[in-house]
Amino acid sequence: MNERGVDPSAPAGEGTVPRRGRQRRARHAPVVLVVMAAGSALAFALLDGGGRGEDGGQAGELPPRTAPVTRGTLKDAQREDGELGYGSTAGAVSRVAGTLTAVPSAGAEVIRGRALFTVDDQPVTLMYGSMPAYRALKAGTEGKDVEQLEKNLDALGYGGFTVDREYTTGTAAAVGQWQEDLGLTETGVVDLGRVVFADGAVRVDGVSAAKGEQTAPGQEVLTYTGTTKVVSVDLDPGDQRLAEEDAAVGVVLPDGREVGGVIDKVSTVIEEGDGPDEQAQTKIRLVVKLKGAKAVKAAAAFDLGAVGVDFTAGEREGVLTVPVAALLTLAESGFGVEVVEGSTSRYVPVTTGLFADGRVEITGDGITEGLKVGMPK
Among 295, 231, 303, which Cα is nearest to 263's? Predict the structure, then answer.
């Protein structure tokens, strides 16, 4: 027996005394071990401070109860609330002054090349792209916004130019043709405010200004979303592990049907408190696309609705597991379990893996299925 209370003759990896362990009840108060691991909830293992370890790890007093080491599939999964709809909302503002002469109704869908609204009987046209319009485009202009415009002209069937970052005379000629087809003056210049860029086709979510009202630069005319049904989910920061782009999820529709989905976008948002005394909260916002024609068809029955979203952050098949409460923290560092064999017990270091459903994957010398490990009261 050495000065640390460990029998040097004990087999390697066994007989290690739990840190602040169970040697003298009078000198050691109970210790609560808090185990934190990715994908796990807080798990508590109570060290009872009882008279163990006097003989180098052999228990003088057996644990109050035991649990078997079992083999099976461990799955870190959880369900979160989500909302079926059309995703986040954006606003379309007028960049020109005048009178609104046409405004779409809520629910209307607008595609590339069509008017989103009209001012003084001239259309403000929807085109696709991630960069917002911020200047007039004319011959000699160069930049990403020029290339974005040319991609749309090409998609609409206009030619005579190379799709690149340079606004050439060929681009101007194509713009003039496009303007003629819209009934506009053929200037070859795209004035600021005559085009609105969005990621794709849009669905009008709400109308902020009515037909006949005056509009001014910067005034919102309508709000819009995408046209594809998606599921929005807000997660707490502690569930960040679930927020993996392209990860598969399950979606439970309002009528109970289960369909597949995939995480399309992940972003961090700050939600303001409802009142002056409520603090802002950080959320991980996910956009989930429905997967497959069957899922899309099933979701089409609902305009909006509350859904459940099933996440699987990790899964391990055919692994050995014990209840998380069976873990002990060892004096030599790391974790272990107390293996109970008949009327004796010994401490065995283990390596932990996945945590889920109150259990933990373990590996270690001599750890086999059916072995009994000590549990707290």
Answer: 231
